[in-house]
Amino acid sequence: MNEAFFFYLFSGLTLLAALYVVFTKNPTYAVLSLVAAMFSLAILFVLLHAYFIAVVHVLVYAGAILVLFLFVVMLLGVGREEPASKSQRLYRIFGGFVVVGFLLEIGLIIKAVSSSAQESPTILAGTIEAVGKLLFTEYFLPFEITSVLLLVGIVGAVVLSRREQMPAEGQYLPGKAAEGGRSKQV
Amino acid sequence: MITLNHYLILSGCLFAIGMYGIITRRNALLILLSVELLFNAANLSFVAYARYLGDLTGQVFVFFTMVVAACEVAIGLAVAILLFRTRETLNTDEINTLKW
Amino acid sequence: MLALGWLILFLPLMACLVIAGTTLKHEKISAWIACGALSLSFIFSIILFAVLAAQGFPTLQSTVTILPLEHLRLEFGVLIDRLSLIMLLVVTGIGSGIFFYSMGYMKEDKGYSRYFASLSLFAFSMLGIVVSTNFFQTFIFWELVGVSSYLLIGHWYQKDEAADAGKKAFITTRVGDVGFLIGILFLSSLSATLGKQTLDFQALSELLGHPAGHEFILTAICLLVFCGVLGKSAQFPLHVWLPDAMEGPTPVSALIHAATMVAAGVYLLARVYFLFILSPTALSVIAGIGAFTALIAATMALVQPDIKKILAYSTLSQLGYMVMAAGLGSSSAAMYHLVTHAFFKALLFLGAGSVIHALHTQNILEMGGLFRKMPVTAWTFLIGFLALAGVYPLSGFWSKDEILTLAFTVNRPLFWIGAGTAFLTAFYMGRLFFTVFLSEPKWKKEPHESPRVMTTPLLLLAFFAATGGFFGLGTFLHSHYDQAIAWNFSVVAGSLTLSLVAILLSYLIYALDIPLLKPFEKPFSPVAGLLIKKYYMDDLYDVLVKYVQQNFAGLCDLFERVVVVKGMVNGTAQLTGWAGDRLRCLQTGKVQFYAFAFSAGVTLITLFWIVLR
Amino acid sequence: MIALLVLIPLASALAVLLMPQERQEEIRKITFFSCLATFFISVFVFLSYSAASGGVQFEISRPWVESLGIRYHAGVDGISAVMILLHGLVSFSGAMVSRSIKERVKEYSIFFLILVASIFGVFTSLDMFFLYFFYEMAVIPMYPLIGVWGSKNKEYATMKLTLFITGGAVLSLVGILTLYQAAGLQSFDLIALQEHFAASPLPAATQQWLAALLIFGFGVIASLWPTHSWSPIGYAAAPSAVSMLHAGVLKKLGPYLMIRLALTLVPEGTKFWMPIVAGLSVVNILYAGYCAMVQKDLKFIIGFSSVSHMGYVLLGLACLNQTGVSGAVLLMFSHGVMAASAFALIGFIYDQTHTRMVDELGGGLGNRIPFVAVCFVMTAMASSGLPGFSNFIAEIMIFFGAWQKYPWPTLAAVFGILVTAVYLLRLVKNVFYGKEKVSWPALKDAQGLAQKTPFVLLLAALLVFGFFPNLLVRNIDAGVKHLIAKNPSIFEVTP
Description:
The structure holds four protein chains of four kinds. Chain A is an all-alpha fold. Chain A has helices at 2-23, 27-47, 51-76, 86-113, 128-136, 140-161, 174-185. Chain A has a domain at 2-120: Up-down Bundle (Four Helix Bundle (Hemerythrin (Met), subunit A)), CATH 1.20.120.1200. Chain A is built from seven helices and no strands. In chain B, 78% of the residues lie in helices and 0% in strands. The radius of gyration of chain B is 17 Å and the shape is elongated. Chain B has helices at 4-24, 28-53, 57-87. In chain B, helix 2 packs antiparallel against helix 3. Chain C has helices spanning 2-21, 27-54, 82-105, 112-131, 135-153, 160-193, 201-207, 215-232, 241-244, 250-259, 262-271, 273-276, 280-301, 307-328, 331-359, 375-389, 395-410, 412-438, 452-467, 473-477, 489-511, 518-532, 537-583, 591-612; strands at 60-68, 73-80. In chain C, strands 1-2 form a two-stranded antiparallel ribbon. In chain C, helix 3 (82-105) runs antiparallel to helix 19 (452-467). Chain C starts with a helix and ends with a helix. Chains in contact: A-B, A-C, B-C, C-D. At the A-B interface, helix 1, helix 2, helix 3, helix 4 and helix 5 of A face helix 1, helix 2 and helix 3 of B.
């Protein structure tokens, strides 16, 4: 009973927050409501006994990613969106159709496969220990690869957002000049 | 009694909302936000399956998803900043250099 | 003994290779190598002849297989019998005379060594045909003769005319070769149906000993093989290359006309006479072509001003005789005339070369009165002239009268053509001789007799041209395929009278300048024009080449450019480009549209999948 | 041993890649010695291939991707022994001729060596995957080689050539993959596949369309009419060493792969298509011959001539009897050497005069460059099928082989030798004979060993095998007999 109550409460909250993200005109509000959605999702995770994931989820999403979003929104000073054009309205209508169709399809699929999905008798708790063990034994290689991926992400972000530094006139950069000279030749 | 289907339907709804966001929003930042919704819809079904199938692998994959999401956001935001710097706008209607 | 045969064959090739490989820079040595090799071949031929004479001329053959095909062996060998022995002697003997003569004639030429290398190659190719044991080998050397004539006629390749003449000779004879090769292909399948696929002469003659049926295919084979003869022996309609081939050095002309190349065709006729005898239809075609060639060539010779061209047309005409003889049923008569003709025609060409060497012109109207200035040349030339005209007792008399007698008994119309040709021959040769040697001198620079190295071959050849009729060659070469020729006094007397009358007439007209021809000049001027223009044959071929062949080639090229490249290739490219251009409209470049399309696509595909289930 | 044929050039390409581009001399030396080494190996392989025992020799087999059944399976049979010799010869001469390349030597050498390696790869592979892999690998370096170092209209030419050949390759790839699936052996191994299909042949209809894919797919690179139009312009634009390799060797991959794949794996289907190939090959011979007659560019003439000669090769192949197929392989060798020599000579002239147009050259060059002129005349003679050169023997074999099966096409093909003689002699006459109408003060004859060797080597090969054809035919026959023994049904084994 408790579980059902919490589930309906927080799933409702999540959906509301998500809808607000999509429909609000103010980007700042959108980010903040996404934070709310993340929190309620984390509680759903707890309901599913995924304690470690729930904590990480809050830390990473709410704590890191969305703060980053907020920074960017503030930094760029993105204001409200302009009023919708004609094509924009078309997108809304047809997008609505597509999305509703998609939802219906998902419902159909879930209905079709639901009989096979049995509840597991034992409840595995997603503690740090359990998840960590799995992560560092069976999924060790993918884990390491994700770390490389992260590194690449960081480097990529740095390179992309760095302001192009033009060498001042007369200043000679040997490596770059040779490079440039060759590419011109080719 | 909350079954797997409850979670899956919730996940589907989240996904559909995210999709709608991607289709309708024109601000690049908000599109990225909607993408985050999609990620979380997927995460939710992962965790739900992990619970109902009794297999922690699902949770491990959520972990990986988060890493990917983090990278995506880092790069995506960097691109957004770059775009704003060169174009002074984040409106996707005005950014159409993909067409050549 | 056969080893000697191989040696005779390969000595000139070795000379050619040695010259080309090592002594190109040393002209004297090159010349001596070439002459030495061929004289050595000549000496070996004499030895071979002597040895085999003691044994009563058995037929010897040795072959090596170059390449075993599935059912056929491509062989290479040496066949020695009466026919090839005589021909070996002629080719090497006259050949060496001409080689030595060349040493004097070609002095100070830039391509001296190259000349002798090609000359040796020419001799080698001819000897290869002579000793050939099978059609494949004959074809090989047939082609080699073609290419060596190409090299020699085009020796002075800087001259456009020479280069063109070489090309013309090669391509014209190759037209015949195409037919020849097809004939060989036919022959290979015919022999396969008769039991054993072979191209060997002896094996074939046994296989074809009892032909049952196959008349049509045999006629076809004979005519196709005869195509090769048409090309090499310059019979109508492939005769056009021979007069042009006069662009080559004079010794080369002598070699082509006397001992090699043109002789090859007639020799092939004699060699594979067992084949031709099986098809009377083919034989009558051959006889007709021979007679026709003899007549038109003799008429063309009447009006030529160029000393070498007159001799060239004379060769054509005499070759016509030989081919006619073969067509009438006697290959031995053809070969007999071939041998005697080789002597006096080589003599005449070398004599002409001597005159040209002295005066540096080929136009007989610019010569005259040389009898005193060049006595050796003149006397030997006189012998050659009389032999060609068929005056008793010189060699030409015997062989020519044998052919005329044969024609008289077998085919009366051809006899009249032959007799007419004999009259014309004597007349145009008289014109040549009297104009050059006995008429008023028209040269400016004092001419002088040629050096010893050139006159010695003249004397030797003159000896043989005079006495060639007394060796009994006709009976020596007689084979059981040939018609027997009965001596007919009236024919002989008649033809001799004709010749003498013609010589007398020409003496009156050209030596004494009595204007006997004046009244005929007017009404016959169109005929003379026709003759000067060589019956427009060259022009006809020019038109064929220039308009028909070139236009067809142009058409192919146009098709290539327009249909294949522009239509099929670039058309495909343009179609692709156009399709891409249309499809490009789908790419709006707007992220939103892509996202929408993507979502809609996923939804639709999922729907499809659900419905399918 | 034969793996070295691929490895040496590849390793050299890698070495060149690591060298600084200023050291051109060293790069040239590496290229030269690598090609010299492969030349020696190819001669060794050819000489030590025992025709008496026949079959596949020098076999190597190493697993590569076991799950898909891909193995590096290499070996040499009678036919490939001859082709390896051809490629060794031509690539070595090509490397020597490449000295005239002055720009971007490093990149050129890398592409050239990759090209050399991959063609060796095709000739040695006995695994369908590697066969196709090396085949595509040979096409790719062509694109930059022509596009960068070519001349006159090179962009169009290289585009066309690459697209055509790749298009053909895609067709044949479909065929190869279908064969792989149809066999169900989980193996690309040619010998295993061959035995499988011999034991349980595919249904006739399947064989027919598979054979169509393979024959017409590989027919593109063999310049089968009407997919030949890439060839003259491609050769015209390519630098001379590349034209040599392309016309000499790469083009022969078409018939070679037809023998290797179509003839061995789908014999009945191949038999079905061969009359059509014979008909098209006659079109090749005569059509291309006449096209060559009106061309003004030397390389176009030789390019069309090579299209024309490929017609003879295809005609021989279409006979499906021992004489014809052996003749076709022999002509592949002979024409390869001859075409290489022709392109090398034209390249030699072009490098100094910067024109290849017959009327711009003006004629009379024989006086100024006698050595090159003599070589060219000999090449032309070889090309027009003169006895003494191995081309003659090959053509005769093809005629004898084809005569039993396709009399009418054979007649047309025999007529083709006349057409060939016409345009080649005209070319020789217009370029080398006659008076010198244009003076080329800078034109120098080939001097020294480095310049003369390629020509002498190629012509000597033609002459040696022209006088002793059995040296080659012995090996070829061993290979062809093996083919016949495997598929007696499609070969004519009657007198």
